[in-house]
Amino acid sequence: xxxxxxxxxxxxxxxxxxxxxxxxxxxxxxxxxxxxxxxxxxxxxxxxxxxxxxxxxxxxxxxxxxxxxxxxxxxxxxxxxxxxxxxxxxxxxxxxxxxxxxxxxxxxxxxxxxxxxxxxxxxxxxxxxxxxxxxxxxxxxxxxxxxxxxxxxxxxxxxxxxxxxxxxxxxxxxxxxxxxxxxxxxxxxxxxxxxxxxxxxxxxxxxxxxxxxxxxxxxxxxxxxxxxxxxxxxxxxxxxxxxxxxxxxxxxxxxxxxxxxxxxxxxxxxxxxxxxxxxxxxxxxxxxxxxxxxxxxxxxxxxxxxxxxxxxxxxxxxxxxxxxxxxxxxxxxxxxxxxxxxxxxxxxxxxxxxxxxxxxxxxxxxxxxxxxxxxxxxxxxxxxxxxxxxxxxxxxxxxxxxxxxxxxxxxxxxxxxxxxx
Length: 421
Hints:
Layout (H helix, E strand, L loop, with lengths): L21 H10 L2 H5 L18 H21 L6 H10 L9 H12 L11 H12 L13 H7 L11 H4 L8 H7 L13 H24 L5 H6 L1 H17 L6 H18 L7 H16 L2 E4 L2 E4 L1 H19 L2 H27 L6 H8 L5 H13 L3 H12 L13
Antiparallel strand pairs: 1-2
């Protein structure tokens, strides 16, 4: 068997034989987890309690999986060694560790983990948590932890194939915690020494598909809802200038690696391509759908493989980055979200401290999977914090609201209501 298809805990024979390929089984294992179903109640950009107009984390994930699979099938048809089922499995799992309330909770959990009397340097990061859920927290068999996926699917899941660094990009984004290093290192075995910390083709396809879904489908949501003024950007130069100035400012804050020449090229693409493609007045549903279809089709063709390495079209990459910036500029950074986000930070903080206390004083009150992980460790303060973080990150948003109401005394709830599982 190829090393790419090996599982860390091996594979028992089945009777009758399983007709699925190893990576098809990976895909199906993810699909049937409770953690995957939870994504229906997790924020994509705005809260999952908002109208059905907006994507939640589950509908976003399904579109990433569909786009990623189609790209992989195209590349496989061109003769490249790419596994579409592994790409789809990675896409289905790529956000499975993201906490309730999205990036706001991600930032808050990272802060809570890295501060206090017992700082945990690894902190919290959604991609590292997704790897932890798949390899340790989700259950498939009582004989081992995690879903025991193939190496190729785990590699495809890993957008950021390194542990957390002290600073820079690898401090902000990383693929595994030190606590999960053994399985992370195993997942990178078989790769060339100079590519161990690079995305595999499956990971690059999944990452690109994620960007396409975020850039196009979330933008479509918020234009329909009146938040993103595409029609004004199409015809108003001062609005274009303000958007581009804020985009460059944010990218510098995020340490994006853009030289002055690259930014000039990106700005030119915005002015000569993107802004000109935007509708000049509020379009009907069919016109907006046609625009989304056009851009998705363009971007799907924007990734190829050369010498076993994924190659991205730089012009399409700039367009994707600019389209994603529209959602950041007009939605994520909007004043209307500020109060809501502050409330979400407070919920996350209260629940984190609550579960830290529970883990230290009476871990049997934790969900069974969390208490089992604690029981298998040394009981250190760092492990208690990680367990509390795992529980909070595994909540749906409705669970988080309900549990917060109970522990703060604002609503008693009922003993018949299961809050955390």
